[in-house]
Amino acid sequence: MGRGMSMTKLSFFQVNSKCMAEMKEKQVSLQRKVDDLQAVIEHLKRGEPEVGENSAARSVTNRAHPKCLLLDYNGTGEIVAEALVMSSDPQDFVNGIPLGPNSYKVLVENAIKPDAFLCRPTTNILNMEQAVGEMLAWPDDNCIFHEDNAPKSPNTASANKCILLNWRGNEEVVVAEGRWQSKELDALVNGLPIGPNVVKVFVDVVLKPETFLWKPTTKISIIKDCLKTFVAWPEDKVVMV
């Protein structure tokens, strides 16, 4: 046991070492949370939904932190949680790890399926119930944005797919790919009826990010702002594929 080392001292040393290790782990976890919160506060102070908002490659949308539903990443299509999208910047961090491409950084508000396993778990956060109030990385194709109080995208049937042509000029320039949903006069996009000779489309892929919208709003003016959400587009500029 060593000279001068009694059983009492040894026990105290072991307990002290365990406590120090636990405190260090908690400190790292708290520091990550503080870093995430500080980043969010800075974006809010600047009136930005995320870093790189003006970059087409990094922007989610000009609308501050849109709400979304998280689908099971295993491909079951089951809704597992409600969340806010905080960032799509690949260089942003979640739990000390870069977000990377094709992912969103989300803040989980409500666990619909508490035992749903996370795609990037940590030692302390393994399922969706434990993730409420936490930041997560989630695949962007498993995030569905709220729209018109019906937060779901149209189906993926080939008969539903379409391309959007630039509504300005006579040249047939493809600006985006999406899924046709409705051309009912009272179908809503950004809270407004689309009206006659218009199609409501869910935008899957943006090809010409700076294309001006046919129906812009005070916060949304170009097609990249509509990625993974709905847009109103002239019917004669929507081609089924």
From TrEMBL:
Pfam families: DUF8039 (PF26133), Transposase_23 (PF03017). Residues 69-132 form the Transposase Tnp1/En/Spm-like domain. Residues 157-240 form the DUF8039 domain. InterPro entries: DUF8039, Transposase_23. It comes from the Eukaryota. This is Uncharacterized protein LOC104738576. It comes from Camelina sativa.
